[in-house]
Amino acid sequence: MARPSQPSPSSPAGRRRWRRSDNGRPPWRSDAARRALLRALVWRPLRQFPGRAVASGLAVALGIAVVVGIRLANRAATQSFRQTDRALAGRADLLVRGPTPISASRLAALNALGGEATILPYIHRIAFDPRAQDTLELYGGDLLAEPPPTAAPAIAAAASAFAVRGGPHPERRAGGGSGAPGPPPRPRGRRDARRSRAGARASPSSVGGGRGPTVAPRTSFAAGDGHRGTPSAPPLLLAAAYAHRHGYRRGQILHLVIGAHRLRFRIAALLPAQGLARAQAGHIGVLDIGALARLLAGPHGHEAFDGLAIRLAPGVSAAAVIARLRPLIPADDVIQPPAARERQAGKMLAAFHANLLALSFVSLLVGGFLIYNAMSLAVLRRREAIAVVRALGAQAGAVRRALLAEAALLASAGALAGLGLGWLFARATVGLLSATVNNLYAVSHPLPPRLTPADIAWALGLAWAVALAAAWGPAREASAITPAAALRPEEPELAFRARQPRWAALCLGLAVVALAAAWLPAPYGLPINGYLSAMAAVFAAALAAPLLLRLVLPPARRWLLHRRRPRLALAAASLLAAQRRVAVLVAALATAIAMVVGVAAMVGSFRQTVRVWLGETLQAQVYIRPLAWSRRHPAAIPPAMVRRALQTPGARRAVFYYSAPFLFQNQPVVLATRWSPQEGARRAVRGGLHFLQAPVAGAMRRARVATPPGMGRTDPSAAPLPPARPLLLVSEPFARRFHLWRGDRLRLLTPRGPLAARIAGVFYDYSSSQGILRLDVATYRRWFGPPPVTNIALYAAAGVTPARLRRRVAVRLARAGGAFWVHDRASLRRQAIAVFDQTFRITDALELIALIVAILGVANTLWAVALERRRELAVLRFLGATPPQVRGLLLAEAAWIGVFAVFLGAVLGAVLAVILIDVVNVQSFGWTIQVHPPWAYLAAALALLFVVTVAAGWPPARWAARADPLRAVAAE
Amino acid sequence: MAAPPLGWRRGYDKGMVWEAAIGGSAVDAPVACAAVVAAEGVEMTYPGAASGAPATPVLRGVDLAVAAGECVALTGPSGGGKTTLLNLLGGMDRPTRGRVLLAGQDTARLDDAALTRLRRRAVGFVFQFFHLLPALTALENVALPLELAGELSTAAIAAVSREALALVGMEEYAERYPGRLSGGQRQRVALARALAPRPQLILADEPTGNLDRQSAQQVMALLRDLSRAQGAAVVLATHSAEAAAFASRVLPLRDGRLGAATAPPRDDAATP
Predict the structure, then answer these.
(1) What is the rounded CA–CA span in Å between residue A658 and residue A914?
(2) Which pLDDT value is given to residue A540?
(3) Interface pTM (ipTM) of the complex?
(4) Phi/psi class of residue A153: alpha, beta or left (left: φ > 0; alpha: ψ in -120 to 50)?
(5) How many CB pairs under 8 A join A and B?
(6) pLDDT higher than 90, residue A313
(7) Chain B interface disruption, residue of A19, A22, A392, most B CBs within 10 A
(8) How many CB atoms lie within 10 A of CB A13?
(9) Most buried of A487, A632, B26, B271, CB within 10 angstroms?
(10) Rounded distance between C-alpha atoms, residue A455 and residue A421, angstroms
(11) What is the pLDDT of residues A461-470, one digit of tens each?
């Protein structure tokens, strides 16, 4: 080499010249060192074993995918409610709503507000579209006066189109047709609308009545009553998205079922996807409130509204208006800002969403275990490199940071991939989630899930948090040992063994935490302590894994040697020598298995409990309810239809139900009553119930009331009963939610003032997690008025099969123009179980993904083990082992891992099942689940998981068997 | 060994160029001065593997001082404590009793970070099993301690590393990964890595234990000559009398006790 023309950089003079800064910390100092460490400890090793990096990244990706997917799907479901509520509220400052519709006649009382506020009634109903087999949300409002902001142009355009063309049914504007009074002349614009509304303030006594001044819900379009047989169809503004989805065009007649009514509408215009028309993924129809009120009231009924939207005049405070409004509206009506309603919708789904999210985190947790394992393996494999760089002057912190950087890198790659997968997962699951929400809570048409920058940041943050937490231990360990110790090959396992007593103590401590957390109450109504308990149990099990290995493997090895099973004994010895990585692997796999076992045991028990409950509660032969029905919008069965159903040949006895949303302590619950012409009110109200706290005998003696007069077979809603002490029963979820049990007193706000009642009993119920208040019908009538019939249960006469009675009822009601779901007991039970199964299908997906992540970890770790032990395996070959024997050895190790994981997973799964059943479920939904584990399913699942674990060891075992021993030894 | 004697000789010549650049001599032994490293009454005991197992004493009252430019060979049977003493001298471990003064600093009084800094500045290691990072090329392995020190620019690090490789006759293998080098070549790369930061002390643990005789002599000669040229002290742990012949002082270490110094066994190859 030629002499350099300048001083050598390695000479003192040269160093001074080459050094760019003498301030003690050259600008490149930290960067160069960091780069060198990253290259030596991270980049190059990752490049050498890209499969390991891919497997670890994939584990994170799947975990993140599940969490992101559930988050997006949850949000899509919640947003559909929120969007609907926002669009419905429009620019309203307050909403008034009550447990029962607000009668139009009550509007007159609101005149007292004068010009302080504009009051706009609205109607919100669910309609069933038989042709499309889809549901549609119908909104009735004073659209020209106060349209939802973004929908206003479309509505105005549609209105103007009707105006120019003279409207579809000018004769109706004059008040003709089917005896229903006609609407007032349609105003030509917003000014007319406001004038009309002003008129409403003056005298809102005749909504659609056509007599006297018009009220706020003035009919802006011509409207027919739409009942079957009427020639005209009121105009409907249909969301363009819905129309395009089902091939509807403007001007076409649309047949819808609202409650039990079959109605016809003419599609007057298509609403572009803005504002209200975007809500519920476009399952929206908008009508003029006058038309809709008349349609729902029928020719002789009273028009009523679902709520009032109040817009305050400038400078008027909401509190002042509430104070003035309060005495004018029924005591059970609630006045609140629209945001409060949104919050209630969010709260309604909070526990459901939280549980799904918690389950989704299991995959991420399993992924975290695998990251821990991957990093531990990486540290073990790079011990020499770590020792060398430490000996060469790398600081312990720098080594730790380099390893954490690797974890963050894997997490970032996994998170980015997981975001895409999560979006796909959300798209696949949002339908399932929506179906569950529909079944359990309210109709929901979620929008397609969308990824936002906040989601990306959240996923990255979560992935980093999990990966860094998982990698912290191995990284800290790598940096903590002295370089001299790091060069001793046996050191990590020695250190690991030395720590085992400490870990045993920690394991016990976590078990105590799990037990204690399970007894703590649920803060904010969310089972946070239940999750904490489950988490503590999982980590306790993870710490128990190495102890289990240490306890079982040595005697097992001796026994196997004694029984002349050398391969299994050698496998046991190998696992014992590498118990650290094996323990982590067993913990990861056991967590996934425990999730399968725990959730399967919970779902199986729940399913069986529901089956038993259905068997006890469904005692009638045929059940009837309106076709278009939802929990938020229960529809009444018209009295004529009730009579027709009762007169069906073969019907021996009938029981009537009424249930509707109700607000108790400003929280949504269900208020119900049950009565029967053949039973006393107090006896009827407890019919079909299975009690957690049965009413005491004294209460029932007082409850012995004669069959009420007028409760004849043909007149279910008869005259009020004589006053009696209220008999109130509450469902278990209600009791748990409000901490009110038998003997406790509560106060219900009714249209006739507050009703004080004592809880007579608490019954099991699995139909509503919000809770049910069931009043005897006499009390109900006295405080709320006559209850409409929302469900009918028919008992068949002797010799009439349920199926035959169902057919007869269905035909009779259909001939009368009604639209009903009619089920016999068996089909209703089948349907209920189908709904149940559908509800938990999403948990199946979550379990499956957690297992895939764990199996991925098994395959990854066994590969790593085979790679690391290639020389040892080669020596075995030199000693005379055949390739099948080497393969068998690795498969035996996989089998050992499978045995430990299945055992630990089964035990942990049983613990998780108890926590899920007795803590999380009770705290989330308030349901008592009887323990009925599906033993056969669990046994089959565990056997399958064991086989899959062994199968995951097949590829590395095959590779190891085929490896050339000469090359493996030469690699030294 | 893959590298021919000529190559080694050429590397040696390059060493002369390098030394010329710093104004020293490759063959003249530097004048011994204050000890670079000293052990005073050092004892080392390893705890038992299992809890309750008796502790294992490895070193018992070792006193040793090595001056700059001096080459000391520690000999003795396996398990005698040679590696342990090297680890203590290099600041990779701390004694149970006594003290180790490395570059004038008591290693037991330094925290881990300070000890690491001291080691980075003052000590170079040569191991029996080379301990080259398999994921890095020969050049990158040599550059690693310089990069970790962070005192030179990237260009300077590359230049110094190449020079160090050239000194040991491995320049043409700079881009090779350790897996593709012979044992002797690996050890020469390891030697270059130890020398590149110009440490005050070079600790070599069985540097020839994995090498054939010829490679062993080449490596030892390089170690002796280059360390002398840099004025570095060398402490060598070895079983090999041939390797010990390159030392200026041979100290037997048996059962954790250091024996009296003996003259190195005569070996023609070891004569400079």
Answers:
(1) 36
(2) 93
(3) 0.71
(4) alpha
(5) 150
(6) no
(7) A392
(8) 14
(9) A487
(10) 13
(11) 988 898 888 8
Asked whether the beta carbons of A565 and A958 are under 8 A apart, the reply is: no
pLDDT in tens, A315-365: 788 888 888 877 777 777 778 777 776 666 666 666 677 777 777 777 777
A52–B contact, CB cutoff 8 A: no
**Cβ distance A899 to A582 under 8 Å?**
no
DSSP string, A827-895: HHHHHHHHHHHHHTHHHHHHHHHHHHHHHHHHHHHHHHHHHHTHHHHHHHHHTT--HHHHHHHHHHHHH
Closest of A90, A450, A408, A419 to residue A274, by C-alpha: A90
Of A11, A18, A387, the CB nearest to B21: A11
Residues of chain A neighbouring B115 (CB-CB closer than 8 A): none
In whole angstroms, give the CA distance from residue A540 to residue A509.
8
CB-closest option in B50, B148, B198 to A389: B148
CA contacts within 13 A on the Cβ side of B167: 34
Hey, what domains does chain B have and what are their CATH numbers? 5-270 (3.40.50.300)
> Could you tell me which residue, A748 or A92, shows the higher pLDDT?
A748
Bridge partners for A312 per DSSP: A117
- Interaxial angle between packed helices A935-952 and A579-617, expressed in degrees from 0 to 180 and rounded to the nearest 10: 150
Instruction: Find the radius of gyration of the CA atoms of chain A.
Output: 35
**Cα distance from A38 to chain B (closest Cα, Å)?**
11
- By the 8 A CB rule, do A87 and A278 touch? yes
Q: Which residues pair with B59 in a beta bridge?
A: B44
Instruction: Return the structure tokens found at A660.
Output: 């509707």
Four-residue CA torsion sign, A465, A471, A473, A476: negative
Question: What would the two tokens of residue A211 be?
Answer: 């007599």
**In chain A, how many H helices and how many E strands?**
33, 19
Q: Which of residues 481-540 of A touch B (CB under 8 A)?
A: 482-485, 487, 494, 497-498, 501
Sorting pLDDT into bands at 50, 70 and 90, what band is B211? confident
Helix then strand count (H, E) for chain B reads 8, 10
Q: Do residues A822 and A620 lie in contact, with contact meaning Cβ atoms separated by under 8 Å?
A: no
Unique residue bearing structure tokens 């967590």: A591
CB nearest to A45's CB, from B120, B127, B135: B135
CA separation (Å) from B84 to A245, A443, B79, B243?
79, 75, 9, 19
Question: Nearest 10 degrees: CA dihedral of A363, A367, A372, A375?
Answer: 180
Helical pair A883-915 and A528-562, crossing angle rounded to 10 deg:
150
Compute the residue count for chain B. Answer: 272
Question: What phi and psi values does residue B73 have, to the nearest 5 degrees?
Answer: -105, 130
Distance of CA A939 to the CA centre of its chain: 29
* Surface of A (11-30) touching B: CB under 8 A: 11-15, 18-20, 26, 28-30
For CA atoms A952, A955, A956, A960, give the dihedral sign. Answer: positive
Give me A746's structure tokens: 């509560």
Closest residue by Cα to residue B65 from B86, B38, B100: B38
More confident residue, A672 or A209: A672
Q: Output the 3-class SS for B121-160.
A: HHEEEECCCCCCCCCCCHHHHHHHHHHHHCCCCHHHHHHH
Phi/psi of residue A139, each to 5°? -115, 130
What distance in Å separates the CA atoms of residue A715 and residue A509, rounded to the nearest whole number?
A: 66
